[in-house]
Amino acid sequence: MNAFKAFKAGVPIQWSPNLYITLVRGIPGTRRLHRRTLEVLRLGKCNRTVMRWNTPTVRGMLQQVKRLVVIETEEMYKARKQKEENHRALRPPLVITHLPAFMTGSF
Question: What is the pTM for the complete model shown?
Fold first, then answer.
């Protein structure tokens, strides 16, 4: 389950000292207070991830912009990155041999 689906499903997350915050919604059209909060969190563009300590101040800021961001624990972030890395890994090449019909024995 990716982080966004886990967030939407309300899956309980273990406490973590670090939070990984990803901006998943666009900034244009948001309130000025929300834009300033994202600026303080250093989230300037979509799909950017930052790591912040899990403090009451940061959690309060995230509560304001919770519809714009996805919050992951360190464990969830590492699992997502590992899955993406495995997806991008080199695969063995597909080898196709074109043999004439009389050599394969089927006519």
Answer: 0.63
